[in-house]
Specification:
Blueprint lengths: L22 E6 L3 E2 L5 E3 L4 E6 L16 E7 L4
Antiparallel strand pairs: 1-4, 1-5, 2-3
């Protein structure tokens, strides 16, 4: 379809914003050991509970190298 030059075009404007207050749990996907062989986290263990800030970001305290899964358990309005 060819538009007439007099037709108005709708151009959506998207703005990426963070949502404050969303809560997440971080789980160990597998048993996590330090190089000296000490078990730090068991598979399925919650290793951190994090909440997003006003910019929508959340950080966990230092975690040992390993594989983790993050699940949102409480949403925030926004």
């Amino acid at each position: 379809m060819i538009q007439d030059a007099t037709e108005e075009k709708f151009t959506p404007i998207f703005k990426e914003v963070g949502i404050e207050g969303a809560k997440f749990k971080v789980y160990a996907v597998e048993d996590t050991y330090t190089p000296d062989g000490i078990l730090r986290y068991k598979k399925g263990q919650v290793v951190a509970d994090i909440t997003t800030n006003s910019e929508g970001y959340a950080t966990a305290e230092k975690l040992f190298p390993g594989e983790y899964r993050i699940e949102e358990y409480e949403t925030s309005e926004g």
